[in-house]
């Protein structure tokens, strides 16, 4: 889910950026450095929404760079274990399927797909119930529950399940 | 904010720090390789699982708070192959997990419902279009994806009134995170809410009636589409 949060970062700025536009330069650099990154604690930094406060700069010995402590507000996206998400299926194979919720990738193993759904191979691999009423294929929207998360420097990866009450396909592109 | 960060750093044990230092170079390689493979999703998926042990270690640099859940999830991954075990683990998990939303993030963090996020991001995107004349600033992929997702999952047009309706639940001890989940999944019945947010089950007897009223209010606010 999305969060609004205040974060702090020490920004190092080269002296050539000083002058009247120092603040603008600092903010531009902050956006470039921070947006799109992700961490385990905060998740993806989706966008900076405002600057709270820029502290006094401190000259770094020997380099001339000045570091400014910057407090900024931003919107972050972080999945939690136990959270319910709506995700779009991106790929289906016999191991299960991959889905995407915002910047986050989610894998749902075939063990976590209801037992009455069978894998069907072909041009459009899918999971279908025996009576054919429910079908999960690429671009289907599913509601799933996150049961595990893992974060590295550039992305967040989750394991999800649809084997529970009120989970599963919410919108089938084939019938829509 | 700053003291929170400080906590994060002081908590990891010496061992954790050391191991993360050692593993850092190799994990960097691994994540880079993972990126190269991104054209084929299946490969990426496999790679990710394969590397998971090494990869979740460096997180102790960012936050020790995340360390435990990460280790736990690492175990889940290992079990991934044997489905029944995951099934067992899953049954126990959700209840404590749902509660952690508040604990894992700094207090200053405010949960946003998807519809609120969609509003904010939409506003930023309009600014971005102005900024994008400057070629040095490029809009990150995660922003577009985040916006797309928020738009797709926001079921309500007017976030303020949704927030108002749901806020009546806070006096029954429903947390901000739980409120956001309810707003995001847009449930139709109280049974659905209790199934999806198991942490609410403890107060089910008190909560059922007000929740029912809230849900009927929410259906009125739902987008006509």
Automatic annotation (TrEMBL), chain A:
Primary subcellular site in the record, as a coarse category: nucleus
GO function term, MF aspect, one: single-stranded DNA binding
UniProt subcellular location: Nucleus
Record keyword Nucleus present: yes
Presence of keyword Ubl conjugation: no
InterPro entries: NA-bd_OB-fold, RNA_pol_Rpb7-like_N_sf, Rpb7-like, Rpb7-like_N, S1_domain
Domain S1 motif: 79-156
Alphabetized UniProt keyword annotations: DNA-directed RNA polymerase, Nucleus, Transcription
Biological processes, Gene Ontology terms: positive regulation of nuclear-transcribed mRNA poly(A) tail shortening; positive regulation of translational initiation; transcription initiation at RNA polymerase II promoter
Pfam families, alphabetized: S1, SHS2_Rpb7-N
Domain RNA polymerase Rpb7-like N-terminal: 8-64
SUPFAM superfamilies: N-terminal, heterodimerisation domain of RBP7 (RpoE), Nucleic acid-binding proteins
UniProt GO cellular component terms: P-body; RNA polymerase II, core complex
Family statement: Belongs to the eukaryotic RPB7/RPC8 RNA polymerase subunit family.
Described function: DNA-dependent RNA polymerase which catalyzes the transcription of DNA into RNA using the four ribonucleoside triphosphates as substrates.
Protein name, entry field: DNA-directed RNA polymerase subunit
Species, as recorded: Prunus dulcis (Almond)
Lineage: Eukaryota, Viridiplantae, Streptophyta, Embryophyta, Tracheophyta
From TrEMBL, chain B:
Biased composition, class Basic and acidic residues, residue ranges: 30-40, 48-59, 76-97
GO molecular function, one term: nucleotide binding
Pfam family, one: RNA_pol_Rpb4
Domain RNA polymerase Rpb4/RPC9 core: 102-225
UniProt-annotated stretches for the region Disordered: 1-97
Residues spanning the signal sequence: none
Family to which this protein belongs: Belongs to the eukaryotic RPB4 RNA polymerase subunit family.
Name of the featured protein: RNA polymerase Rpb4/RPC9 core domain-containing protein
Source organism per UniProt: Prunus dulcis
């Amino acid at each position: 889910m999305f969060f609004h949060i205040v974060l702090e970062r020490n920004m190092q700025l080269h002296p050539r950026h000083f002058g009247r536009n120092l603040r603008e330069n600092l903010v531009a650099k902050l956006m470039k450095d921070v947006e799109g990154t992700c961490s385990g604690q905060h998740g993806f930094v989706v966008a900076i929404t405002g600057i709270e406060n820029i502290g006094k700069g401190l000259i770094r010995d020997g380099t001339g760079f000045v570091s400014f402590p910057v407090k900024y507000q931003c919107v972050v996206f972080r999945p939690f274990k136990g959270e319910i998400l709506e995700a779009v299926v991106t790929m289906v194979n016999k191991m299960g399927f991959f889905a995407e919720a915002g910047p986050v990738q989610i894998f749902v193993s075939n063990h976590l797909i209801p037992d009455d759904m069978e894998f069907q191979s072909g041009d459009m691999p899918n999971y279908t119930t025996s009576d054919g009423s429910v079908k999960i294929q690429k671009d289907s929207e599913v509601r799933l529950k996150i049961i595990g998360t893992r974060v590295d420097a550039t992305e967040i990866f989750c394991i999800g399940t649809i084997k529970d009450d009120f989970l599963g396909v919410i919108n089938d592109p084939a019938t829509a | 904010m700053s003291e929170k960060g400080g906590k994060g750093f002081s908590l990891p044990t010496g061992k954790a720090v050391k191991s993360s230092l050692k593993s850092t170079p190799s994990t960097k390689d691994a994540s880079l390789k993972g990126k190269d493979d991104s054209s084929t999703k299946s490969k990426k998926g496999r790679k990710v699982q394969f590397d998971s042990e090494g990869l979740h270690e460096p997180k102790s640099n960012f936050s020790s708070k995340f360390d435990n859940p990460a280790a736990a999830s690492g175990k889940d991954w290992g079990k991934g192959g044997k489905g029944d075990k995951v099934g067992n683990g899953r049954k126990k998990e959700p209840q404590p997990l749902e509660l952690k939303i508040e604990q894992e993030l700094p207090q200053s963090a405010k949960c946003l419902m998807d519809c609120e996020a969609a509003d904010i991001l939409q506003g930023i995107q309009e600014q971005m279009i102005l900024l994008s004349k400057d070629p040095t600033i490029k809009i990150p992929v995660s922003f577009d994806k985040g916006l797309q997702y928020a738009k797709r999952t926001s079921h309500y047009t007017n976030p303020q009134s949704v927030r108002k309706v749901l806020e009546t639940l806070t006096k029954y001890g429903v947390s901000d995170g739980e409120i956001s989940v309810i707003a995001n999944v847009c449930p139709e019945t109280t049974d659905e809410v209790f199934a999806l947010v198991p942490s609410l089950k403890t107060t089910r007897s008190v909560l059922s009636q007000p929740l029912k009223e809230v849900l009927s209010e929410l259906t009125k606010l739902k987008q006509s589409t």
